[in-house]
Automatic annotation (TrEMBL):
Source organism (scientific name): Hypocrea jecorina (strain ATCC 56765 / BCRC 32924 / NRRL 11460 / Rut C-30)
Name assigned to this protein: Dienelactone hydrolase domain protein
InterPro entries, per the entry: AB_hydrolase_1 (IPR000073), AB_hydrolase_fold (IPR029058), Polyketide_trans_af380 (IPR051411)
Keyword terms, alphabetized: Hydrolase
Family designation: Belongs to the polyketide transferase af380 family.
Length: 318
């Protein structure tokens, strides 16, 4: 794994997003790094994640390369405000990204508002795509292990054979779970209902033959690689009726003429999302497949992704 010296102390920041307060960390350029003329990158974390995990790993790399890098906890998650905790609201997630861009544009004399890029990881690869499609302040977009929570919900999984078509039963089950959760919350507004775990990291509770995607997730979130006390992998069922009608990539062509780079591992169950999204995007665009890596390998193994991302952001924001 490629590691980076943690010489720069991040600056704790906060900014509003809709009615929520978002908490983040701003990594300034590493002293002695190349002058990027105030170029800055917003880094958005995966579903069920927090800023201290893979987002910070990539932010340190970007800081070492001379960029400002802003990581943040999505609304309802981590140190940011919002109830119920862990709620996955696609439109809030997209607004959080746009709010982070707004925060950077206000750093007069430090960040150049015409040199702001975006990096989205996992579900945020989808959210970042949606945000870039409708925000001209974002000058370039890179994604790592991108996925679409809407397509995942409608198909009942992340595998390519599942994602090829909508699954009416999966949709019905998602909507029923959301409906029942909302009814329970309405009947007892003060109750703290514990949401189910999306990625089971306790081997004693894991299925005998777990889905390969969930097995790979447990290997990351259940180990030193990705474990964090604020990353619980719990997703309230109310999230699912918010996700079911959302789509990350339908308007991917609107990113052009801004540069687009999508990175995924050759062994990632989610590789098909990036391939589909890059196919309907217009240039300049590039798909970069990392041989032998799965979806979660690229969260903390930057050996192949770091050089590619640095070249991309340097050329796109020069």
């Amino acid at each position: 794994m490629l590691s980076y010296i943690e010489a720069v102390t991040p600056i704790a920041v906060s900014f509003p997003s809709f009615q929520l307060q978002i908490r983040g960390d701003l990594f300034p350029p590493e002293p002695g790094s190349p002058n990027r003329k105030g170029a800055a990158i917003v880094v958005s974390h995966p579903m069920t994640g927090v800023k201290e995990q893979t987002s910070t790993t990539y932010a340190k790399m970007l800081s070492n390369a001379g960029f400002f890098a802003l990581v943040f906890d999505a609304g309802y998650q981590g140190e940011s405000s919002g109830e119920p905790r862990g709620l996955e609201d696609p439109h809030q997630r997209v607004e959080d990204i746009k709010a982070a861009v707004s925060y950077l544009t206000a750093l007069s004399g430090r960040v150049d508002p015409d040199r702001i890029g975006l990096l989205g990881i996992c579900a945020s690869g989808g959210y970042a795509s949606y945000a870039t499609q409708s925000d001209s302040r974002i000058k370039c977009l890179a994604t790592v292990s991108a996925a679409c929570v809407g397509r995942m919900t409608r198909s009942g999984g992340v595998h390519e054979e599942q994602a090829a078509r909508e699954n009416p039963q999966a949709i019905a089950m998602a909507l029923e779970a959301a409906a029942q959760a909302r009814i329970m919350a309405a009947k007892n507004p003060t109750a703290k209902l514990e949401a189910p775990v999306m990625f089971e990291t306790d081997p004693a509770k894991a299925a005998d033959n777990p889905d390969s995607f969930f097995r790979d997730a447990a290997a990351y979130y259940g180990s030193r690689r990705g474990k964090h006390e604020r990353s619980t992998q719990r997703v309230p069922p109310q999230s699912y009726d918010l996700m079911v009608s959302y789509d990350s990539f339908n308007l991917q062509h609107l990113i052009a003429p801004r540069p687009l780079l999508m990175i995924a591992g050759s062994e990632a169950q989610t590789l098909h999302y990036s391939r589909t999204a890059i196919a309907i995007a217009r240039g300049p665009k590039e798909m970069f497949v990392v041989p032998g890596r799965n979806h979660f390998d690229l969260y903390d193994n930057l050996l192949e992704t770091a050089p590619k991302l640095m070249d991309f952001f340097i050329s796109s924001l020069e």
